[in-house]
Design a protein that fits this description.
Blueprint (H helix, E strand, L loop, with lengths): L1 E6 L6 E6 L5 E7 L6 E9 L2 E9 L3
Antiparallel strand pairs: 1-2, 3-4, 4-5
Length: 60
Amino acid sequence: MEEHFFQCPYCWEEISMLLDVSVSFQKYIEDCEVCCNPIEVSVGYEDGVLNSFSANSIEQ
């Protein structure tokens, strides 16, 4: 597991989440720990190194 810090796309507060480095690609919804809005998280690893990360609002 690896801790990653980023800004919430709703409240702009810096938050962190634990990422599983053993999975090469993950996409899921997780609530912001500050404002509780749902964030779509996409994470990509290559050879155990984070090579892509996005945290987006799920609003259209």
